[in-house]
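Re: folding output
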Amino acid sequence: MSIASTTVLGSDLFTVSTTQEHELGTRAVFQIKDSSGNPASCEAVYCKSLATLSANYLTEIPLVRGTDAFQIDAHVTTTTAAAIADTVGDKFLAGVPLVASVSGDYLWVAVKGLIPLFAGASCAVGATVHTTATAGLVDDAVTTHEVRGVAPLATVGGSNAVTDSYAFHDIFVVKIS
């Protein structure tokens, strides 16, 4: 994915700020380019980081849970997913920060459209992906929590890597077993 984007609402999808520029939960569509330079779009939600987050790793996006709405404190693992969605059918919103951040940063988190996503070695093109024991990593090996709404656009080769993926709708992590 290219680091060039169109400025939307006075912000750039690929930057962080220590100053809040928009209301948390604001959504915007950004025009970006895929890894081959082709134009695409990405919808993102404006959030606050409460921890160190890596770019392209799956995170939970808390919605309405007290005062932490749209404040991200960790990458998703199978263990953290089980703590949030512990009954079959339970789900929560997830997204992918496109830049690294530290606690206190404000940033856009991708939830729909073209999204570079950290995926497991040999994760197949178009595969249904699941949470793993590794923070923020998704893979096509089945676990108790499925990551719905996003699929890799190419097979990941050899080792864990960031791959262009596409989310047709908001990304949700759902307990399936």
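--- second protein (sequence, then structure) ---
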Amino acid sequence: MIESAASGKSISQIPAWHFCYWGAVAALFALAAWQRFALPLDPIADPDTWGYVAPALQKLIGAGFVHTDGRNFVYPAFLFLVLRVFGDFRAIVITQHLFGLAAGGVLLLTWRRARIFVPNSRVSLAAHSVLGLLAAAVFLLAGDPIRFEMQLRPEGVCAFLVSLNLYFAIQFIACSFVEKRRWPAVAHGIGTAFTAVLLASAKPSFALVAVLSFLPVGILFFRRGWLGQKIALGSGVAVSAALLLLPEHFLSRNDEASQTFLPTTLFVVHANLIRDQMADDLERGAAIPYSRELLGRVHDALGIEIAQSSAAHPEHYPSLGFSPDHLMYEETSIAAQLRREFDNNIPALCEFYRFYYWRIWQHRPLLVVKKIVRQMAIFYSPMCPAYSRGKSMFLTVWYRDATRNLQVESYPEVWTKYPPALEFTRRSEVLARSAIFIQQRAATRVFFPFWRPPISHCFWAFSS
């Protein structure tokens, strides 16, 4: 009699639904792979592409890895490794597709492992497995994750990083609080810490997700006993953080955008609330560390810029009522005016941004919370504009925009010194004239917007 290597049971003793389940898993991943690799393999560039690609290309042509536009080094380092090994931009999309498929597999493993928290569940193991398979199918076959994997942005690998972080967190909770297995708990705790820092480094808007996933690890330090495990876990967490945070610290020292991007973003996104707070401070003569004359000029300029941004871009950010991009990037924007006000003193300028961002939390917390709730309501609505609900997602438009973003004359000379970059540009121009689309099945169009884990986008709402 042939024995099953996995369970020690004979094949005849294995429940029939096991064969059906694993057959369905194989079919799902085959379909998901076909849906990805049947598409063009050239990545899609956007206006932010250069900030991610430049460090990799500069290193490849011998100019050194230079921190650019405030982008964390993790994703540019990933691009460098892929291009160094394969020398072809198409390898980036292939790798990101493989990461996307791996994310689906890790999510399935996490779902099966999570059953340990409900040992006497009324839901049978077969039903539990099918529910996990359906959730994985929605993720793997939806058009938006596939499109993300085709972009030259960290979103292409974030699904994998989120799934990996969630897997380690679930394993840590199970080992430390349910099974009481000490050293496996330490190993998974270190894995949770490393993947949390890696996720927040690759995409800072997932920082809150990373913090929440790390909370169970922090709780372990307050339980009795486990002294040796606490020392090992603390050391592992410190090393994990140092491996990712120290290189970023040293690489970003000469990148001004690393200092200004987050404070400026928080300021312009909350510009209307900050304007009103400034008006209150002027009216009451509040004791703040800035002169009344400076505050009056900034308040007036901010009011004018908000009105101009609404008139110039009425179709952008309708829920906010103004365009933060206009306030941040226009040549005559409030950000440019404030630079002049502070004589290009970057630390002082960033301190001003932070001061008024926290001031609205101190004096207008309900309005800030209301804004967050409104943005989350929009994001989690069935018709969220962030995700496509159409039967087809036409990529021709994306490649057409990519050709404009890849115009060689708008890029530094480094682009022309790397032949694979020029080949990538030429292929993108051809794809911009082709009818290429991602087909979305009805089930994924309906259920993908509801599948998104709510916690994973809290920071998005918090900063919007």
